[in-house]
Amino acid sequence: MSEPGTTAAVAELAELAKVTPPAAVVFDCDGTLMDTEPCADAARGAVFARRGRAYDEGAREALIGLSMAQGGEVMARLLGGSAPQLAEELAQELLAAVADGARPMPGATDVVARLAARVPVAVASNGPRALLDKSLAHGGLSHWLPVTISGDDVAQPKPDPACYLAACAALGVDPGSALAVEDSPVGARAAHAAGMTVLGVGTLIRGPYVHVHVPGLDDPVLHRWLDGW
């Protein structure tokens, strides 16, 4: 009898096998390529603490995956005050935190390098331009990712598909032939709305917006799929 882990791996590989090699791959950044969630939590916690409020799990769930402007609006509802000022405060805290502690997610460097050698690749992020550039540079990923779309580059952030559509346009590919790699429901909705195939990583399991899932970019099943191209 096969081990449960082996059975699950075979099932995941079978699901990935249904995803034909894409014409391009567009990655989310925060939580997908870069382990910035601890940085984000520290930044949000600092904003809440200045106002004498606890940054709890409910607040975290309300803020994860949002753009700075969206985050400012949510914090204004939770804390009171000006949404634009809160968004700017959060952005400054995040820049400092990323410079201190952001690291590539396990497997991210290898997957990006392997894919960049085969197909056009890009990043589509809800983060502001300054934060996106600093994060990718800090993680040593900029070399492979010359095409990046930030939250500052589109009129509407995720879950609107604008950033994914812009990334595909910049790469010169039809969204229907491209793969999006996402870790958040907000991002998966955006990529799905753009007409892309969505690979969910981490806790973003299969659902209405996710076609296939792997536990992380270091997952052996994902690398076996890449080996089979």
Provide structural commentary.
It is a single chain. This protein is an alpha/beta fold and 229 residues long. The chain is built from 10 helices and 8 strands. The protein has helices at 4-17, 37-50, 57-63, 68-79, 83-101, 108-116, 129-138, 162-171, 185-193, 220-227, and strands at 24-27, 34-35, 103-104, 121-124, 148-149, 178-182, 197-201, 212-214. A 6-stranded parallel sheet has the order 5-4-1-6-7-8. Strand 4, helix 7 (129-138) and strand 5 (148-149) form a beta-alpha-beta unit. Helix 5 packs parallel to helix 7 (129-138). The longest helix is centred in the middle third of the chain and has 19 residues, at 83-101. The protein starts with a helix and ends with a helix. The mean pLDDT is 90.
Task: Considering the chains and any ligands shown, give keywords for the structure.
229 residues, alpha/beta, six-stranded parallel sheet, two-stranded antiparallel ribbon, 10 helices, 8 strands, 49% helix
Question: What's the quick description here?
Answer:
This protein has 229 residues and is of the alpha/beta class. The protein has ten helices and eight strands. It has helices at 4-17, 37-50, 57-63, 68-79, 83-101, 108-116, 129-138, 162-171, 185-193, 220-227, and strands at residues 24-27, 34-35, 103-104, 121-124, 148-149, 178-182, 197-201, 212-214.
